[in-house]
Description:
Arc Repressor Mutant, subunit A; single chain; 2 domains; 2 strands
Amino acid sequence: MLQALVRDGVLKGTRGPRGGYALGRERRRITASDILRAVDAADDEGSTTSSLLDQVVKPAMAQAEKAFAAALSRITIEDLARRAEQLGIDQTNDS
């Protein structure tokens, strides 16, 4: 998992007896989306999970997905058509 975060630039790794991991860039420049991409890549590779991932990252992602789904459930085709009309977009033949 840590390797995937390093590959995506979320973390940087230092080898050796005083080595370890540190953030790859400023905290304000690392998004949950960056972490999710790295986690998804690691899951695809069959990497092992960690308590940080299981207890912090995955619940945060689940909460975000739930909020996103709730927001989408409030948008109707009527809403989209109305917005297209406001923008003057032809809804009958837009390719």
